[in-house]
Each structure stands twice: as structure tokens, then as C-alpha cells.
Design brief:
The complex is a heterodimer of chains A (about 290) and B (about 625). Chain A has about 290 residues and is of the alpha/beta class. Chain A has 9 helices and 10 strands. Chain A folds into 2 domains: about 5-205 and about 280-290, Rossmann fold (3-Layer(aba) Sandwich), CATH 3.40.50; about 210-275, no CATH class. Chain A is about 35% helix and about 10% strand. The longest helix of chain A is centred in the first third of the chain and has 19 residues, at about 5-20. The radius of gyration of chain A is 18 Å and the shape is globular. In chain B, a hairpin with a 2-residue loop joins strand 16 and strand 17 (about 360-375). Chain B is of the alpha/beta class and about 625 residues long. The termini of chain B are far apart. Classes of the chains: A alpha/beta (about 290), B alpha/beta (about 625).
């Protein structure tokens, strides 16, 4: 059993624990490489099926290819796909690109707030109808009690302190200083009404592991991760006004793995292309305490 | 440890594998008393191996300059804002670095007693530990407590780092005194450390580079010893154990497979193997080993998350453990002797229900008896206590609401480990040392054999349920003498019968003078009577029927015995009469026996709620 096998089997165990213990379970799918690996692991865990909805928070500023890719896989894999957004902030133009908010506030409104509203069911949810091939307003407004998220411990400081099963209180607040213990493959599966649990099956994976696994399993990924001839590619995907690409000649998965192994990026944070991190004092901690993924 | 031994270690570790596709990863936790310099050592390890992101060192240094405080290597690790202001590690942070041999995840655990739960969390993910002791302060309370917790958590490889050697003028005698004192402590808890290394995190002595000032120390550095640590082997050569995580059927998606999913804890399994489910005792045979995006396999082993399909249909559920028929059986018990550590804010007390979790099993439990409370910081027994306080370690007896399956700590250690949940939070953990008898043990053995030998019909429970439009159940009608139990039971039978239910009234005398003829009238046979009644009931409900049994003054003990024989989800208990004369926990109490229609209405509602009968056209 090699290291990738160990990671895969542990993640599958966590996904099955989540499925057994949470009635209203969903999985965040940001369309990025990590949450797509997570989606693949769910298909591993449940033998080709994904027995819970996938939730995407749409800021309307996502790069076009990302949405196309999302809907393509939704159709091909028969996914139960839901998206939600902060319609109020978008119509009021309270966004960074509209100059109605700074980067951090824009993230809080379009992502953190939209996520809270979508998870609680207070905000509208749009569900993909596989017959009409259109999204329609979801009639189910029950709150999610368990939500699977693809964060990794090596991404940035606060994520390195996460539990596999991490409690969020009624206000989605993460009390980082007072987390319950977690040991021996036993997780927090009991929770008070009104609270929810974030589940992190990818905590132990690194950026390189993710790409090695994408290669081994031949997982389809969005083309933005590869150099299309201009000598640049995205290493981390987000909203286009706040995400920049990195210099790279890697045109495919093999070349990305090669590039990561050479140590080219070993001294540059993976999320260095994400402008909001810099505005948060070099980390995501402020955003994450309040419910950011 | 003498220097010769360590030198040979270093040579061995030269034999490194550089095959990138097979690179292994090892988790190492750093523990020890608060302020003994754990984060500094980790920070130094990262800085001196060039494992830090570009500019990080400069950034933290300039931050320190701006705030006019001296730079510390610990600041590199304590990335979170809270921690920098308080100067202590609150939670376990993970950092990554690599050597030629393998990749490391270093888990920096907090040393403050307040955060013992975080130390436990960090340590449980590790395969080895670096335990840091301050040369100036010597062995402190948490140096011992952490050592003890590591042994409880099952971490066997411990490297002891005597830090801050620069503060004691790098003196050999001080180092040796600590080695002697701490070795003695570790011996008491059955740990033999990998080695002791004198270091200075602040000055970088013996972290990555060999110390120039401690010429009396000839053995390896911290970096050197890491590659010597061994990977834990998977337990494929032990007996087969797999706790069931779930039984999946995705019929809506056109998939007819019924897959029993779980992760193999130990041993190996092959297609065609005969298996037994514990604690139910049901037998079956492995038909296939399922997988997604992988070719089907004939065999799988410890560590793999798999899915099995079985040759025969059988009702099994999450929490049971799959065992191979020809291998050593696990334990079954509802009373257990355990060692546990408590981390909850509120103490663990008697007469309170806790959730007990082991493998994938979950059951209510109570603290029956505290045999001994130990202070983990000095291994002394604390005088007799009635409760287990935060950070206590205790030997005690737990009573579980029903019997479960597990292994003892000296057999399959992972299946002897449990956690206790109080007020939604994991509040304690421990290991099972002994299975103790309870009032149902003698019946449990018989039931287990009966299930093993049970000859299955070709008609499944599902098919019967569909045919009769009901699931089977036993309705126990109990209460004091002459309160109208039989009248209610017969009325209920007639009422269900008129709705085309497959139902049967079983008078207790019908069993007493026939099945029980050999023991009738003898002393001390009440429990045997109950056992036989339960066995008769079990056969009748296997036929798919709803059975109604009146019985005088059943106690909770009697009911526990019946539940040992008959599936717990299929028992409904009704108490008749205003006086409750036993301790039984009932589903329904009937005061007014004259309003029979009302009574039957209530029972039918219970049957519906439990999913035993469904709505039919006739109602």
C-alpha cells in the first residue's frame, strides 16, 4: 500500500462515516482540482454513485470554463447538483469588481454569506433537473447538518489546525481555540440542533498528492490549470478579478507533477495568486473563522 | 542510549529509497511540557533544511523588529494570530518537510495542560513522537503526562530531545541526569525510547547540524534520527476484522448490488471466504469484492476501504464486525473493564448516559464502578473517587446498554479502543482490558450458537414482509396479576386479524406446560422460562407474524434477556394497570382497560411508527 493508497482509503473511510451519521449531508464543489478529487473519492466510496447533493457557491465572477465544466460533469455523472449565491449583494453591486466593496468584504458577501444562506436553506437553491437540463429553484429548504469540504492542511496556516470533523455553531463561527479532541478514527458525529459539522476528507493531502492522484485515476480537470501556449497557468482557481495565473509551461498533468517536484513552487504559497489572502494579513484566518471554506 | 548504537542507526538510514512513485510519508508529533521549546525545534528544523516558503523567515523577522521583540523560531510555526500574542501553541499545527528517504508531516502539539485534548488529537495522527524536555527545568508534570498519553494512544516510537542545552552551558552531567530520570519513568509505562538527544533549538545544536560545542555527544542529530524511525506495518497477517460502516443499495440508480462497506482493520479476505457477523452470529459467504474505477479483486487486506457482496441475503447492520469463520472470535459483552482518560470539561459521573463508540458501533453506556484513578503526571493512585475529572486517567467498569463486539487490547488493539461522547463532544477515550459477565451472558452464548446453526429458508424476510404487508414483531403485554392483560392481548389479536394481519396470541401457559414441562415447578427457573419463551417467539416471528404475548410482571432484567434472543427493534412492551410494580421500560402504559378500542388504536400507532405495519386500504 503506497502513500496515495493510504490517503485514498482514509478519505473514503471519512466520507462513509459522514454518510452514515448525517441525514442532511452535502458536498461543496468549487470546481477546483481539490474538490473534484473529493468528488471522485465519493464515487469510490459509494461504488460509482454520489448519494448526496453537490453544492456550488456561484459568485457570478467565476471563470466561464469553470461553470461549463461543472455542468458537463453534472450531466455525465448524473450528479445531484445545487448552486446558491448572494443575489442581494449582486443586484446591489456590493462587490469588488463593481467597486462597491473591498476584496475581503466582497469575499464575505459573495462567498461566506452566500454559503451560510445556501447551507441553512434561507437563500434560494437552484437544483439541476436532469430531464430539462436546466437549473430550477429547489423546493427542499432543509438546512444541511453535515457539509463535506475539500480543504487541505498544507494550504495555509489556519487550515493546518483543522479537524477532520469540525463543528460550526449557529452563526457558522469556528472556535479555533476550543476544538474538541479527535483521535482513533472517531469523529464528531453528534451535534446540537442549529449547528452543523464541516467534514474535511482531504486534510492530509498535499498539492502534489492531488495531482498524482488525478494522474493515477485519470480524473477530468478544468483546462485553466494547464498552459495553453501563453506560458501561464492557474495553480488555484477563484473569481477572475482576484485570481491571477502563474508562469508555467506545464501543458498537462505529467508536466504539472514534474514542475511541482522540481521545487519550482516550493517557496511560493499555492494561493499566492489569490488576492484576498494578502488583504487578510497573509492568511485566511479572519475569513475562515466566520465561515469561509 | 550509547553513541555506538546510534551510529549504526545512521548507517542504516543511508540505504534510502529515491523512487519518487513509492515515496512514503510519516507523521511525527512533537510533545512536551509548556515552554520547553517544541515550536522552536520545529521552526529550526524547517529553517535549517530550507523547507520554509520563500520570504517567510524574513517576514517573521521583520515583524519582530517592527514590534521590538526578539525573533524566535517558534513564530514560524505559531502562524495563527492568537498564538503569537500568547506565545503558546493552542492547537496542533502541521508542517511538511522532506528528506531523501521520505516526506514528513510534523505535528506541533501544545504543551499547556489546558490544551491536552489538542495534544491527544495531534498525537493520535502520529507514528512516532519527539518528546521535548527543557534541560534547565528538567522533567516536569507534562513531560510525564504526555509520555503516559503517548503510551495510551499506542505510539511506540519515542525520541526524547533534551532542549535548551545552551542554557546549561552544554553540560553532559545535566543531560545524563535527565536521561536517567526520564528513562526510569518510561520503563514504568512500558516504553523504551528510541534514543535521547541533547539539542538547542535556539542555537541549532544537533537539530540538523552536529553540535560543535557538545563534543561529548557522538550520536545522531534530530534530522538523522527521523529517517531511522520505522513505518508501522499494516496488520495483514493478523486475524481478519472489518467493522461494517454501512450496507448500500443504490437501486434508484439502477444498481441492484447490495454492498457491505467498511475498512479492513486487520487480516485478509478472499472471495469465497465463510464469514460470521459479530455480535449477531449470522453466517454468510463473500461473493465479490467491489470497487470503482479499479479491476475487481479476488482478495483484499488491512487498510483497504472495500465493499463486499454476500452469497445469501441477510439482515446485517452498521456496527457489526465481520470475522472469518475459521479464525479466532472477538469478544461479546455488555460489561467491560477499561482504562480511560477523560478530557471533558464536566467530570464523568455515575448514573448518567454517555455515548460509547468503538469501531463503527455506537451504544449508550454508564459508568458502573471506578476501581482506581491515576494521576498521569506521577503515576500515583488518587484516593477513592466517585467521579473522573478532566485530565484524570482511570481504571473502571462500564455498563453498555446492549452487548457489542470488540477485541481486547492484547489482541487487535484498534478494536479495543473506544471514545466516550458527552454533550455532543468526544470527552474521553480508552482501551478495553477485559470482558465481564452480565445477567445475559449465559443466554448470549446459546443465541450465538443458534444463529450460527440457523438453517435459512429460501424465502427472505423482505419477501415475507411484502407478502404479509407487515414486518414481524413481538408485543409483550405485561402488568400485575388480574389486570386484564389477556383481555387486551386477545382483543388486539382480533382487531389486527380483522385487518388481514398475520397475527397470533400466545398464552404463557401454552409454553409453560409443554416446552417448559421438564422444569415446571422447579426453583430458580424463571430466567430459563423467559429464555424458552423468547426462543419460541423468535421462531414464530421468523415466520413473519406479529406475536402477542401476555406475561405477569416482567422486569427490565427479563426484558434484557428477551432482547438478547429477539431482535431489539421488533419488541413492543405494554404495561397494563395503574400500579407500576417492576422496573421495566415500556413503550405504552394502559390505565383504563375498559376502553379497548382506544388501546388497540394506540398500539397500532406504535406499530406504524416503528414501521412494522403500513397503511392498508382496509383502514
Amino acid at each position: 500500500m503506497n502513500h496515495l493508497d493510504q490517503l485514498e482509503n482514509k478519505s473514503v473511510y471519512i466520507l462513509r462515516e459522514a454518510y452514515a451519521n448525517f441525514k442532511n449531508l452535502g458536498m461543496l464543489w468549487s470546481i477546483g482540482k481539490d474538490s473534484t478529487v473529493l468528488l471522485w473519492l465519493a464515487r469510490k466510496a459509494f461504488f460509482g454513485h454520489v448519494p448526496f447533493p453537490l453544492v456550488h457557491i456561484d459568485t457570478k465572477y467565476k471563470i466561464t470554463e469553470m461553470i461549463e465544466y461543472r455542468d458537463k460533469l453534472t450531466r455525465e455523472w448524473g450528479l445531484n447538483m445545487i448552486y446558491g449565491m448572494n443575489e442581494q449583494a449582486l443586484s446591489d453591486k456590493q462587490t469588488f469588481p463593481d467597486k462597491g466593496a473591498d476584496r475581503i468584504s466582497c469575499c464575505k458577501l459573495l462567498k461566506t454569506h452566500a454559503l451560510k444562506q445556501t447551507l441553512s436553506g434561507q437563500g434560494l437553491r437552484y437544483r439541476f433537473n436532469h430531464e430539462t437540463l436546466e437549473y430550477e429553484v429547489d423546493t427542499n429548504t432543509e438546512a444541511f447538518t453535515g457539509i463535506i469540504v475539500g480543504v487541505r492542511a498544507d494550504e495555509e496556516g489556519s487550515r493546518s489546525k483543522e479537524r477532520y470533523f469540525s463543528a460550526r455553531d449557529q452563526g457558522n463561527i469556528w472556535d479555533i481555540g476550543d476544538q474538541p479532541p479527535e483521535f482513533w478514527n472517531q469523529y464528531k458525529t453528534d451535534f446540537a440542533a442549529g449547528t452543523h459539522v464541516r467534514i474535511h476528507p482531504l486534510l492530509d493531502w498535499t498539492e502534489l498528492n492531488i495531482w498524482e492522484y488525478i494522474k493515477r485515476e485519470n480524473i477530468p480537470t478544468v483546462s485553466l490549470y494547464y498552459n495553453q501556449g501563453d506560458g501561464r497557468r492557474y495553480r488555484s482557481l477563484g473569481c477572475y478579478p482576484c485570481t491571477s495565473s502563474v508562469e508555467s509551461c506545464a501543458k498537462n498533468v505529467d508536466e504539472i507533477i514534474e514542475e511541482l517536484k522540481t521545487g519550482k513552487f516550493s517557496n511560493i504559497a499555492e494561493r499566492s495568486g489569490r488576492a484576498q489572502d494578502k488583504d487578510d494579513g497573509g492568511g485566511l484566518e479572519t475569513l475562515r473563522r466566520e465561515g469561509y471554506m | 542510549m550509547n553513541s555506538k548504537k546510534v551510529e549504526s542507526i545512521v548507517q542504516k538510514s543511508d540505504d534510502i529509497s529515491v523512487d519518487e512513485t513509492a515515496r512514503e510519508t510519516m507523521n511525527i508529533v512533537v510533545v512536551g511540557h509548556v515552554d520547553h521549546g517544541k515550536s522552536t525545534i520545529v521552526g529550526r528544523l524547517l529553517a535549517d533544511t530550507n523547507s520554509l516558503p520563500e520570504g517567510k523567515l524574513a517576514q517573521v523577522k521583520s515583524n519582530c523588529q517592527r514590534n521590538s521583540k526578539p525573533f524566535e523560531y517558534a513564530f514560524l510555526i505559531d502562524a495563527l494570530k492568537d498564538e503569537q500574542t500568547q506565545g503558546i501553541t493552542i492547537d496542533s499545527a502541521r508542517v511538511f518537510f522532506k528528506t531523501n528517504k521520505r516526506d514528513y508531516i510534523i505535528i506541533d502539539a501544545p504543551g499547556h495542560i489546558e490544551f491536552l485534548k489538542n495534544m491527544v488529537t495531534g498525537s493520535s495522527r502520529a507514528e512516532a513522537a519527539l518528546l521535548v524536555i527543557d534541560a534547565k527545568e528538567g522533567v516536569q508534570e507534562n513531560s510525564r503526562r504526555h509520555g503516559y498519553m503517548l503510551s495510551m494512544l499506542g505510539i511506540k516510537q519515542i525520541v526524547v530531545l533534551v532542549n535548551k542545552m545552551d542554557c546549561v552551558s552544554y553540560r553532559k552531567d545535566i543531560f545524563e541526569r535527565i536521561v536517567e530520570e526520564y528513562s526510569r519513568f518510561l520503563l514504568k509505562i512500558n516504553i523504551s525510547p528510541v534514543c535521547f538527544i541533547p539539542v538547542s533549538g535556539r542555537e541549532g545544536d544537533n537539530i540538523v547540524a552536529v553540535s560543535a560545542v557538545m563534543s561529548w555527544y557522538k550520536a545522531t542529530t534530530v534530522l538523522g534520527v527521523l529517517d531511522f524511525l520505522k513505518k508501522e506495518k499494516t496488520s495483514a497477517n493478523q486475524v481478519f476484522r472489518m467493522p461494517i460502516q454501512g450496507v448500500y443499495k443504490f437501486t434508484k440508480c439502477g444498481d441492484t448490488r447490495r454492498i457491505v462497506a467498511g475498512t479492513i482493520e486487520s487480516g485478509t479476505i478472499k472471495v469465497g471466504d465463510n464469514v460470521i457477523f459479530y455480535p449477531s452470529g449470522k453466517k454468510n459467504k463473500v461473493k465479490t469484492i467491489e470497487a470503482f474505477n479499479k479491476s475487481m479483486r479476488e482478495e483484499s487486506s488491512a487498510g483497504y476501504a472495500v465493499g463486499l457482496t454476500l452469497s445469501e441475503q441477510s439482515y446485517i447492520k452498521r456496527g457489526e464486525i465481520i470475522v472469518k469463520e475459521n479464525e479466532e472470535a472477538p469478544q461479546i459483552a455488555s460489561r467491560i473493564k477499561v482504562n480511560l482518560f477523560w478530557l471533558g470539561k464536566k467530570p464523568m459521573v455515575k448514573r448518567k448516559d454517555y455515548i460509547f463508540k468503538l469501531g463503527t458501533e455506537k451504544v449508550l453506556a454508564r459508568l458502573e464502578k471506578i476501581e482506581r484513578v491515576i494521576d498521569a503526571s506521577n503515576l500515583k493512585s488518587v484516593e477513592a473517587k466517585e467521579e473522573i475529572n478532566r485530565h484524570d486517567v482511570a481504571e473502571c467498569i462500564l455498563k453498555l446498554k446492549r452487548a457489542i463486539s470488540f477485541d481486547l487490547v492484547d489482541k487487535i488493539v484498534s478494536l479495543s479502543r473506544f471514545v466516550i461522547v458527552a454533550d455532543y463532544e468526544i470527552s474521553g477515550g480508552g482501551i478495553i482490558r477485559e470482558a465481564l459477565p452480565d445477567g445475559q451472558s449465559w443466554v448470549r452464548e446459546k443465541v450465538f450458537m443458534r444463529n450460527c446453526k440457523w438453517e435459512k429458508s429460501n424465502i427472505s424476510q423482505e419477501e415475507r414482509a411484502e407478502k404479509y404487508n407487515q414486518k414481524s414483531a413481538v408485543i409483550l403485554v405485561t402488568g400485575a396479576k388480574d389486570v386484564g392483560k389477556k383481555r387486551i392481548a386477545k382483543k388486539l389479536e382480533a382487531s389486527l386479524f380483522s385487518l388481514d394481519r398475520f397475527v397470533y396470541f400466545l398464552g404463557i401457559g401454552n409454553v409453560l406446560y409443554g416446552v417448559d414441562a421438564d422444569i415446571k415447578g422447579k426453583a430458580d427457573v424463571k430466567q430459563e422460562h423467559i429464555r424458552r419463551l423468547a426462543e419460541v417467539s423468535n421462531i414464530l416471528i421468523d415466520s413473519g407474524m406479529i406475536l402477542i404475548v401476555p406475561a405477569i410482571e416482567l422486569t427490565q432484567d427479563n426484558l434484557n434477556l428477551i432482547k438478547t434472543s429477539v431482535n431489539i427493534d421488533r419488541i413492543i412492551t405494554i404495561w397494563v394497570g395503574g400500579d407500576i410494580t417492576t422496573d421495566i421500560e415500556y413503550d405504552l402504559r394502559v390505565d383504563n382497560v375498559d376502553d379497548l378500542d382506544n388501546v388497540t388504536g394506540q398500539v397500532k400507532r406504535i406499530l406504524k411508527n416503528k414501521g412494522i405495519i403500513f397503511d392498508s386500504a382496509k383502514e
